[in-house]
Amino acid sequence: MTDTPLVPRYGDGALADVLPSVLAALGVPGGRNPLGLAPLRAACVLLVDGLGWRLLREHAAHAPFLAELAEGREPITAGFPATTATSVTAIGTGSPTGAHGIVGYTFRTPDGDLLDVLGWTTHGQGKKVDLREKFVPENAQPAPTALERAAADGVRVRLAVPHQFQGSGLTRAALRGGETSGVFALGDLAVAAAAALDADGRRLCYAYHGDLDLLGHVYGPGSLAWRLQLEHIDRLAATIAEALPADAALVVVADHGMVTVPEENRVDVDTEPALTEGVRLVGGEVRVRHVYAEPGATADVHAAWRDVLGDRAWVLTRDEAVDAGWFGPEVADHARQRIGDLVVACRGRTGIVRSAVEPILTRMLGQHGSLTADEQLVPLLVHRS
Prior knowledge:
Blueprint: H1 18-25, E1 42-48, H2 53-58, H3 64-70, E2 76-77, H4 84-93, H5 97-100, E3 106-108, E4 114-116, E5 121-122, H6 137-140, H7 146-152, E6 156-162, H8 169-174, E7 179-183, H9 186-197, E8 203-209, H10 211-219, H11 224-242, E9 248-253, E10 259-260, E11 266-268, E12 279-282, E13 288-293, H12 298-309, E14 313-317, H13 318-323, H14 333-336, E15 342-346, E16 351-353, H15 359-363, E17 366-367, H16 373-376, E18 377-378, E19 380-384
Parallel strand pairs: 1-8, 1-9, 6-7, 6-8, 11-16
Antiparallel strand pairs: 2-18, 3-4, 4-5, 9-19, 10-17, 12-13, 13-15, 14-15
Helix pairs in contact: 9-11, 10-11
C-alpha cells in the first residue's frame, strides 16, 4: 500500500490544463498551453467517464484505436477529488478544484444543505429538493468558463451531452458558454460531435459519454460488461476521428479511474457509532469523504476517524489537506468553506459507505475519488486530421 498520496499535477499535467491548452492551440489570446498542443482550427474534446489510464492500458486489446494513441504518451492527473462533478468543472473552467469550488460529488452549501452536484439537489434519503434557485449554479461557480472565453473570441462552441444534462446545475456551473446538442446514445453522440466541427472557422466541441463509468460502478472496472462497453467507445472515438475536417484534432480524456471495493473492505458510517459522534454531516462519496463536525468537535472527530480507519485512509483536517495541495495551489474562500472539517481519502481498496443514507452507492462495486494512481491517472490522447 502506498505511503503517500498522488497529489494532482495542477498547472502542468491535470484536467484543469486541458481546455486552456486547447484554447491556446485555437488561437484564443491570453491563455497558457501547459500541455504543448500545436495550433489547430477545430477540436473535439471527448470525455469518457471512468476511463482510467491503468484500465486502458490493462485492457488495450479491447480498445485498439485508443491504445495506439496511448503509445509513447504519459497520463495526466484528474484532480481532487477524482470524481465526475469536480473533474467536469475542472475541464469546463480550466481551473483546479480550489479555484472553481465544486469540491466533490456532495458537499455542504452555505445554507447547510448537502448538495448532490450531479442532480443539483439535496442529497440523502427522502424526496430530493431542486437547489438551482436556492444555490444558483452561476453563483456557485461564478468565474467565466473556458467555453465562454472561447466563444467571446469568436470560436463556435458546441456541447454534445446526454439530453438530461441540458440546463442541469452542473452544466450551468461548469459548461456554460456553448450551444447544446442533447444526445441519447453513441450513434447520435458521434453525429453531433462531427457536425459541430463541420464548417469553416474556429470550432470547439465538448462531448461526453458516461456508460463506461456506470458499468464500472455496477459490475466492477474490467468486468466483461465494462470491457464490451470499452469496445464500443473505441469505435466511437475512431468514428469521430475519421470524420474530422482538415486542421482539426480529437482530444480524448477521462475524469477519473476506478477501483474495486469489495464488501469486506467497506467501513459503514451508519453502523459505527465512533464515526458519527460529534458529526453534523458526511459528504463526498465512498472513496473520499468530507466530514463536517459540530462546533468545537473537530479535534475529537479527527481522533475518532483516525482511530477507526488506521492506515486504510489518509485523514486530514481541512487546513492540512489545503496545505498539502490536494485542492490546488490556491483555495478561494468560497471553496474552503465547502471543504469538510476533515477530508478522508481512502487507500488501497477501502470504501467508506453509508448503508442507511446511501443504499445504492453502498452496494456499488466500482468506486473512485481518492489519491491513488488507479483513480488519479487518466489519458490525454490526441488524434490530428
